[in-house]
Amino acid sequence: IPADDVTEAFTIADAFVAAGLAKGRGEARRLASQGGARIGDEQVSDVDQPFVSVLGDARAVILRAGKKRFQRVVVE
Asked: What is the dihedral of CA 14, 18, 22, 27, to 10 degrees?
């Protein structure tokens, strides 16, 4: 994901869509409400929070949708 796209308005749901793990923000919300959205090993309950708050100092994270679908997201 380009670093210019990752602002305070860029949410975790947007990251799941950009990674191809959800077709839209609604699907990302549904995935989180069912307990299937994870960042690393941590379950995400609110996908509307800024992605920057989860990213922290790291430039790469693992996004997981369910048990078998995952993507490594790198902010460049």
From this structure: 20
